[in-house]
Amino acid sequence: MQFSYILVDSSVGLDSTLDLLKEYDDFLCVAVCKTRTEAINRILELKPNVVFITIKKIDKELDAISLSILSELHEFLDELPTIIILSEGKEAAYEAYQRGVTGFLLTPIDPNELRKCLMRYQKTHKALFADTISIKSNGDYNFIRSSEIVYLKADNNTTDFYMASGKVISAYKTLKYFEKLLPFYFFRIHHGYVINIQYVSRINLGKNSCYLQNNEILLPFSRTYKINIDTIILRIS
Fold first, then answer.
1. Contact 157, 171 (CB under 8 A)
2. In this structure, are residues 186 and 198 in contact, taking their beta carbons and an 8 Å threshold?
3. Cα Rg of the chain (Å, integer)
4. What is the rounded distance in angstroms from the CA atom of residue 130 to the CA atom of residue 53?
5. Angle formed at CA 63 by CA 29 and CA 96, multiple of 5 degrees
6. Are 44 and 57 in contact (CB under 8 A)?
7. pLDDT truncated to tens, each residue of the chain (237 aa)?
8. How many other CB atoms are found less than 10 A from the CB of residue 6?
9. Cβ neighbourhood burial of 94 (10 Å; 0-12, 13-18, 19+)
10. What are phi and psi of 234, to 5 degrees?
11. Helices 111-124 and 14-22 meet at what angle, rounded to 10?
12. Which residue in 174, 197, 177 sits closest to 186, CA to CA?
């Protein structure tokens, strides 16, 4: 069972925080954001399970811009993701909890406290995606596991599912329709392709190419989805 998270952090301690989080394989980083606008857009787009927000002091005052992210998310989401605040002092704790924050960790992060926080989350939450997708084609129903899908290809108003077994299954619905049903480890890299990053073996930025299944499959990616490519590289590296 995996859970997705976004880290919102513009501090000098960004890399060390990310290194600590990457030690937990059950949590997948889908984006790192350094600005308020980027954070809000990515949270609304990717709908992560957990969001870590670093709040720092500016001239001895709390960074109100970081906390304002929570207020704006309330405008668009009926239910917020789990929000965990990272701060060097406890001054932000009261206001953060007043805005619906779930957890609070002091920085620099104590690895033991982080472990407790993540284990507590795992114990009380279930994965927010279905592991099986139903595909109907001319009265024929195929029930496939998301983890066994290598990539999806758009074909006019139909979608082809390319499976790890080599089988190709066609469905009479658009790629956009299925994209909304897929788990967070699927990313659109092109108008016509959505890939499972668990099968990515190589990315060539110079040739705008993405390789899957030990370089056996070559797919192009477009500049429109370059931010998704950056996220894939961040996770794998």
1. no
2. no
3. 19
4. 27
5. 70
6. no
7. 578 899 998 888 888 999 999 888 888 888 999 888 999 999 998 889 999 998 876 544 446 567 788 888 888 888 889 999 998 878 777 777 777 788 899 989 999 999 999 998 888 876 555 578 888 877 788 889 999 999 999 988 899 999 999 999 999 889 998 988 888 889 999 999 999 999 999 999 999 999 999 899 999 999 999 989 988 988 777
8. 24
9. exposed
10. -60, -45
11. 50
12. 197
Task: Name the one residue in this structure whose structure tokens are 């960790």.
Answer: 105
Instruction: Report residue 57: phi and psi, to 5°.
Output: -90, 140
Kindly state the tokens that stand for 179: 């994209």
Strand order, beta sheet including 50-55: 27-33, 3-8, 50-55, 82-87, 103-106
Question: What separation in angstroms does the CA of 148 have from each of 81, 137, 165, 228?
Answer: 27, 19, 8, 21
Separation between Cα atoms, residue 54 and residue 86, nearest integer Å? 5
Residues 6+ apart with CB under 8 A from 140: none
